[in-house]
Design brief:
Elements: E1 5-6, E2 21-22, E3 26-27, E4 49-50, H1 54-62, E5 68-72, H2 83-86, H3 88-96, E6 101-107, H4 116-119, E7 124-129, H5 135-141, H6 148-160, E8 165-172, H7 181-189, E9 194-199, H8 204-213, H9 215-226, E10 230-232, E11 235-237, H10 240-256, E12 260-263
Parallel strand pairs: 2-5, 5-6, 6-7, 7-8, 8-9, 9-12
Antiparallel strand pairs: 1-2, 3-4, 10-11
Helix pairs in contact: 1-3, 8-9
The chain binds iron/sulfur cluster.
Iron/sulfur cluster (SF4) is lined by residues 29, 31-33, 36, 38, 76-77, 108.
């Protein structure tokens, strides 16, 4: 099975991402977010381990790239806590920086700033997930990820280093983090250029974890999801009109701050003002560049 694969090979009707490739340096993730979706389909998800033969396989596959966007990562975080000592994602970036590709990082960790030297060498963008500006709330919903205050600081440092940054407010859970006014204006003030927003999609295991942490809120949300909501694949979404209203409110805040905006897996592409995943921020790959690994 190849390491680098096509993102969303099933072409979900909810996804509006431009074509791109993806790979995960690690299997599993140790941030242990309560709302995590990947934990429902990867066993022992928090027991993180590097992919087998990772660097040799990556070198072989990356040598064939010809300007594609490659996204790290979509089923895990490329900067779990052990990355600080392992440096595996950094070594992967060293390989990719020699090749003809564009790099999109998706992470909740400020550790990404360690690699700004490599990300400056290639067309790249960083999408930092910041679900809330409230460190106390984040400590509950994303217990082992760096606090949002550090991620906002990372956004500022990356933009200062010339690396374009978008922020994912994902997922938005009604009554928990659905009022992002202050967060969005703070993000705009540190140089963030795009917001991607997405509502919480209920799966049995993430619903159980959230109910344990926020029993009253989840009891309140139960009819919205399970009586009026929309079932898509193995997930239950909020009713479409509710999602539209909520996400339009976030879009208006982003537009007021001159930021691009897109929704993720909502079937509401009409709300997008730019490529939903913020990839429009990346410079084009240098056409003449040859992969030095080839
Ligand atoms: S960072 Fe992403 S993959 Fe990791 S636990 Fe949180 S939601 Fe899951």
């Amino acid at each position: 099975m190849p390491l680098i694969s096509r993102f969303d090979p099933w072409r979900s009707s909810l996804c509006t991402c431009p074509p791109k490739l993806t790979f995960n340096p690690y299997t599993g993730c140790d941030h242990q977010c309560l709302y995590c979706y990947a934990s429902s389909y990867i066993q022992n998800f928090q027991d993180i381990h590097p992919k087998k033969e990772l660097l040799a396989t990556l070198k072989r596959e990356a040598a064939k790239l010809s300007g594609e966007t490659i996204s790290l990562s979509n089923s895990s975080d490329p900067y779990p806590r052990i990355e600080a000592s392992e440096g595996l994602t950094r070594r992967c970036l060293e390989v990719l920086a020699e090749c003809n590709c564009r790099i999109q990082i998706i992470t909740k960790s400020n550790l990404v700033t360690r690699d700004d030297d490599l990300l400056s060498k290639v067309p790249a963008t960083v999408a930092l997930t910041i679900t809330t500006g409230d460190d106390n709330l984040a400590r509950i919903i994303e217990p082992y990820a760096p606090p949002p205050s550090q991620r906002i600081r990372a956004a500022q440092d990356l933009t200062k280093a010339g690396i374009p940054v978008s922020v994912r407010i994902d997922p938005i859970i009604p009554a928990l983090n659905d009022q992002p006014q202050k967060l969005i204006s703070e993000l705009a003030s540190v140089g963030v250029k795009h917001i991607t927003a997405s509502t919480y999609k209920a799966k049995p295991d993430n619903w159980t974890r959230l109910t344990h942490a926020f029993p009253k809120v989840m009891e309140q949300l139960k009819p919205l999801y399970f009586q009026q909501g929309e079932r898509v694949g193995g997930s239950v979404l909020l009713p479409k009109d509710y999602r539209f209203k909520l996400l339009k409110g976030v879009r208006d805040l982003a537009v007021d701050c001159d930021l691009g905006f897109g929704v993720c897996r909502e079937g509401l592409a009409e709300l997008n003002t730019a490529a939903c995943d913020g990839s429009w921020l990346m410079p084009k790959a240098k056409e003449a560049k040859q992969c030095r690994l080839a």
